[in-house]
Amino acid sequence: MFNRFFENIKKNRLFEPHHKILLAVSGGIDSMVMLNLFEKSNFNYGVVHCNFQLRGADSDKDEDFVRQHVLVHGTPFFFNRFETEEYADLNGISIEMAARELRYRYFEQIRAENNFDFIATAHHLDDLLETFFLNLTRKTGIRGLTGIKEKSGQLIRPMLFTNRKEIEDFARESFISFREDRTNSEVVYQRNFIRHRIFPLFLSMNPAFDSNLAETIKNLRETEEVYTFFIEKEKEKIISQSENELSVEIEELLKSPFPDTLLFEILSAFNFNPKISTQVFQSLLNPPGKQFFSKSHRLVKDRKYLFVTPLPDSEKRIFYIEEDDLELFAPFDLTIEKVGADNFQLVKDKNIACVSFDKLDFP
Questions:
Q1: 5: enclosing H helix or E strand
Q2: Cα Rg for the chain, rounded, in angstroms?
């Protein structure tokens, strides 16, 4: 496996021999195999570990296991403990999303403070396929279907050349110690449901399912490159940008063969979600003056232009609701239902607020 590991790094130009790599190591089999491969190399690396305190004593045992291993090898070690459940509740997000945000924010902090060039995670081929299915269950575009990439900014995934079975075989043959996460065998989490329930069904239909899907994702990535190239060329025709403002020429936008898609690609960079982008597009032929908001920016529709500007700090906690809104996605998921007075019943639920529609002034 080491030769394939090394060849994959060179083939995809993940990093150069002189670069300093920060390895994200949980203590599980995937990251311990990655660590073993780095230990057999001459690469310059350190190890970072996150304790999300979600599995009681098991989380602390994971932390101790990784610490003891790297100390034996004299490897630079960084770790942090997070109040993950509290963070999830505070931000109105899932435990999985909270752990992801905390993890990558901390990784980047350690990378920047300690002059590491890249952060390496142990995602492998099965993770790539799981991500494809996970995104398929949501509303997604071509980027969502291309899944995990070998290299994205300062983040690299040097294990994408191999799958879970090969990793397990290598760990057994090389006598690599690791910590078993019991949640990996549960179907509580979405990824585990896909891994243990969905994959076996497809593999029973076609044993080559995983390799075929990997090839399909590769083809989609090539298509994405063409798509991105064309989008960037179209953007150049219709947008101009100063230090604090981006303007989109409406007439030129509407000349595009796919104006709604082009508008979404422009606005997504400013945290406007697909629903708001659709609302903006539907307003293009309406009178000027309409405003739209993301969590970070304001968009104003003028007669000839759309103007996008950053929200001042004083307004970043203000979120606007239009009269016809039925669902919002920022700062949290919010469903709005209008109920006639004859059918109204007061609900005693801390997650539900009842207000008088007649007294509201939109937005």
A1: helix 2-11
A2: 24
DSSP code per residue over 17-79: TT-EEEEE--SSHHHHHHHHHHHTS--EEEEEEEE---STHHHHHHHHHHHHHHHHHT--EEE
> What 3-state class would DSSP assign to 134?
helix
Comma-separated ranges of CATH 3.40.50.620 domains in the chain = 2-218
Cα angle 85, 69, 58; round to 5: 30
CB 245 within 8 A of CB 307: yes
Please report the sign of the dihedral spanned by the C-alpha atoms of residue 15, residue 20, residue 23, residue 29.
Answer: positive
In the chain, the largest separation of any two C-alpha atoms, in whole Å, equals 75
How far apart are alpha carbons 299 and 236 in whole angstroms? Answer: 19
Fold classification of 2-218 is Rossmann fold (3.40.50)
Cross-strand bridge partners of residue 80? 50
Contact 113, 148 (CB under 8 A): no
pLDDT one-digit tens code per residue, 217-248: 999 999 999 999 999 999 999 999 988 899 99
List the beta bridge partners of residue 44: 20
Whole-number mean pLDDT of the chain? 89
